[in-house]
Amino acid sequence: MKPMRRISPAGTYFVTFSTCQRRQLFTVDSYARLFLKILYTYEREGIYRLHAFVVMPEHVHLLVTPGPDITLEKVMQRIKGGYSRAFGLTFRPGEVWQRGFTDHRVRDAEDFGHHVRYIHQNPVQRGLVRQQGEYRWCSAFPGFRLDAWPVESRHWSQVAVVSTEEANLRR
């Protein structure tokens, strides 16, 4: 019997998921660009608020707050499924993601800050760039629009935008 996952409570989550067999899929710019297009499409639709992200060659880290009445599991189903469909139609059919994802529910402002720093430092730690802000597929790179962290999830609809610049996802 496969283990059952409990449905995640409302809140903000640090999420990690990997490509199938940890293939270095996102070393191809057009693949990473398509992922960001999908990521921002669902954010604009109100499925979640996006606080930070990094698209590494073989895995992704996100800091997201699911929208009202939507579970983290549904958010991940939209992101991974939406990308898989778009990838298959645009490039080639086939398995894109490893099954499942890991998550950590953000406890407080300190925990939130820790995960933002972790996400932004990930490309530096891996030696892909020298300084955060240089890696093109990371929210630390200039120009990406991110949502402020809603300290209380019941105030989710009142979230402010951190940056006024819209990401240019059609580069």
Descriptive notes:
With 171 residues, the protein is of the alpha+beta class. The protein contains 3 helices and 4 strands, in the order E-H-E-E-H-E-H. It has helices at 29-44, 72-90, 109-125; strands at residues 13-18, 48-55, 59-66, 102-105. Strands 2-3-1-4 form a 4-stranded antiparallel sheet. A hairpin with a 3-residue loop joins strand 2 and strand 3. Helix 1 (29-44) crosses helix 2. Mean pLDDT is 87; it is low at 1-5 and 153-171.
List the helices and strands and how they pair.
Blueprint: E1 13-18, H1 29-44, E2 48-55, E3 59-66, H2 72-90, E4 102-105, H3 109-125
Antiparallel strand pairs: 1-3, 1-4, 2-3
Note the main sheet.
4 strands, antiparallel
Using the CA coordinates, give the radius of gyration: 15 Å
Whole-Å distance between the termini?
45 Å
Q: Name the overall outline.
A: globular
Tell me the β content.
Answer: 15-25%
**Residues in helices, as a percent range:** 25-40%
How confident is the prediction overall: mean pLDDT?
87
Helical segment count: 3
Indicate the CATH topology.
Alpha-Beta Plaits
Question: For the record, what CATH class applies?
Answer: Alpha Beta
Poorly predicted segments: 1-5, 153-171
Task: List descriptors.
171 residues, alpha+beta, Alpha-Beta Plaits, 4-stranded antiparallel beta sheet, 4 strands, 15% strand, globular, disordered N terminus, disordered C terminus
